[in-house]
Amino acid sequence: MNAPSTPPGAAANPAPNIEDKFYHPRITKREDFASDLWMIRVQVGADFKFTPGQYATLGVNGPDKRSERAYSIVSSPYENEVEFFFELVPQGELTPKLYKLQVGDELLMRKSPKGLFTLDKKSGHTKHFLICTVTGLAPFVSYVRTLYKDWKEGKFNGEHQLYVLNGASRSWEFGYCAEMQKFASEAPWLKYVPTVSRPWEDEKWKGETGRVDELLRKYADMWGMAGDNTTAYLCGHPDMIENGKGILRRAGFNKESMKEEVYWIPPKEAAGH
Ligand SMILES: Cc1cc2nc3c(=O)[nH]c(=O)nc-3n(C[C@H](O)[C@H](O)[C@H](O)COP(=O)(O)OP(=O)(O)OC[C@H]3O[C@@H](n4cnc5c(N)ncnc54)[C@H](O)[C@@H]3O)c2cc1C
User: Which of 54, 74, 95, 250 could form a Cys-Cys staple with 83, CB 3.0–4.6 A?
Assistant: First the structure.
């Protein structure tokens, strides 16, 4: 059967253009921190508005289909480029494709940022316990870059205090350690503790050791953080988040005082680490 033709004089109803939902940002910088960890900065070429803590949906077109995944935004909305921090999942669908991209290459980015993993300024809590593994630091860098600029410009007086506990297996996986340490050395409202869980593979490391979930309680007590004055944010590895929530619950944090951003769902047979 023939499709009905458009009546004379009526405007043709244009087919929705799938491309309208995407920007085509171009990579302006790439830095590799380890063989499976790297960052990129992209020029979006449009006004991409987001709140620190949100994520973008990035994609790459393949011969048969488009692959898309969520990625927390590292940069602050004040910056004119958007930054991401990736971990390569060798058997994954998208990250091996993203890994091939170099400066000058384009990718796809959905026009709408998403997510509610933003800084809680409404509960009345003034302490913020930011707990993460590896790339899970990304949204926290965005909070800190934004608050730092506000603080320098007198728009933020340190009425919120941020305490970051950042875990990785080895120190070269932190990515943003030097930047965070520099901010923390200047800003009285920021504490940053990187911790290495495999110090035997990183003999030069002189800092904190142990997994993030093992250290949560120690730092919560040391920094005077409890469920009635603190919001906790857990980001990254699903097992760390599960364990971390249990420990915080036992330390008196209720559901409303904990936010989480789980980066992936472990396959059933591989659950546990
Ligand atoms: C809100 C949100 C924000 C995110 N932000 C980031 C970010 O800033 N940086 C980042 O690198 N990733 C981030 N992720 C994860 C990202 O969306 C992808 O899941 C990840 O990059 C893997 O994609 P893939 O297509 O290569 O692997 P997939 O094909 O999706 O996964 C293959 C298998 O690997 C497992 N898997 C996925 N990721 C990992 C991992 N890191 N380690 C071990 N196993 C894994 C999956 O469970 C699956 O079994 C975020 C996820 C969410 C939901």
Answer: 74
Q: 127-270: which CATH topology?
A: Rossmann fold (3.40.50)
Q: Confirm or reject: Cβ of 70 under 6 Å from ligand 1.
A: yes
Identify the residue whose C-alpha is closest to ligand 1 atom 27: 92
C-alpha to C-alpha distances, 32 to 4, 5, 85, 86, 173, nearest whole angstrom: 55, 55, 10, 10, 10
Q: pTM here?
A: 0.93
- CATH 2.30.30.240 assigned to domain 19-110? The reply is no
**What whole-number distance in Å separates Cα of residue 37 and Cα of residue 85?**
7
Profile the chain (273 residues) by mean pLDDT over runs of 10 residues.
Answer: 44 59 97 98 96 98 94 98 98 97 98 98 96 98 98 98 98 97 98 98 97 96 96 98 97 96 84 48
Closest CA to 132 of 47, 34, 77, 53: 53
Residue spans per domain, the chain: 19-110, 127-270
